[in-house]
Design brief:
single chain, 276 residues, mainly beta, 14-stranded parallel β-barrel, ten-stranded parallel β-sheet, 5% helix, 42% strand, disordered N terminus, signal, Right handed beta helix region
Length: 276
């Protein structure tokens, strides 16, 4: 197996989404279960590498030509169905990625929801989403450096092509809650090995009944959560790591299949597998 590139882990800072940013420095342990990269797939080492592969897939599906809706922020569209397209610098009401299609959303503003349908793929970066980000039975849902006013729901995600991280959240500021339920594959909610910073979540962060295969990883790292964190009944032979998260409420970890590492974290109360 090729090894996933792991950059040096140093103190990482999470910025609290507010009118004046408040930096919270979190120490990152020198090693965690996800470091067992002999069993992990090669995921192109970084989020940027992942987005580059999505662009290549779009070009292949459109015979070498990217279909682009590019307005440089000057236009205002209504509901957009993104079918093998790059939405760059657009201002729209909502976005849907139909079944089996690929969409890249970058440097854009979406007033309402972004929805990813069955077997569809979304890469969202440097965008503002006023509503919710929802994936149901999606193939890939990756979001980096976005401001999301509502909640994030990733449910019943399906295994994707070998090079991809199926569920990836990095450096997002999320006003509501974040929930990952019954997904299969590589899951990263913050992962320094992928150059993927932690997220700021205003509500709760929940990951339940997800399944990680031996070659994949389940990582919840370096997140700042205003409410509770619940990591419940996640299974599979892949390494599962919950570390260096800060919760304003409780952090509860129960029923997660080995291999599992649930410390260190900071919360008002630590319970179960994440208790010191």
């Amino acid at each position: 197996m090729r090894k996933t590139k792991r950059r040096t882990r140093t103190t990482r800072a999470l910025a609290l989404a507010a009118s004046s940013l408040i930096a919270v420095a979190l120490p990152v342990s020198p090693g965690y279960a996800g470091d067992s990269t002999d069993q992990a797939r090669d995921h192109s080492h970084s989020v940027d590498g992942q987005l580059g592969q999505l662009r290549t897939m779009i070009q292949q599906r459109t015979h070498g030509q990217e279909l682009r809706l590019q307005l440089n922020g000057s236009g205002n569209y209504g509901h957009v169905k993104c079918k093998n397209q790059v939405l760059d610098g657009v201002d729209v009401q909502s976005v849907t990625v139909p079944r089996g299609k690929i969409c890249i959303l970058v440097n854009s503003a979406v007033a309402g929801n972004v929805t990813v349908k069955k077997d569809a793929i979304l890469g969202a970066s440097n965008s503002r989403i006023g509503g919710n980000l929802v994936g149901y039975a999606h193939a890939v849902l990756q979001a980096e450096d976005n401001q999301i006013g509502g909640s994030v729901l990733m449910q019943k995600g399906r295994p994707a092509p070998d090079a991809f991280v199926e569920d990836l959240l990095c450096n997002n500021r999320i006003g509501g809650s974040t929930s990952l339920q019954r997904n299969t594959g590589f899951i990263a909610v913050g992962d320094p090995g992928l150059e993927c910073g932690g997220n700021v979540v205003g509500g709760n962060l929940t990951a339940t009944d997800n399944h990680t295969k031996k070659r994949d990883l389940f990582n919840v790292l370096n997140n700042l959560v205003g409410g509770n964190i619940q990591i419940i009944d996640n299974a599979g032979k892949g390494s599962k790591t919950v570390q260096n998260n800060v919760a304003g409420g409780k952090l509860s970890c129960f029923g997660n299949q080995s291999p599992f590492v649930g410390t260190p974290n900071t919360a008002a109360k630590l319970k179960g597998q994440c208790k010191w």
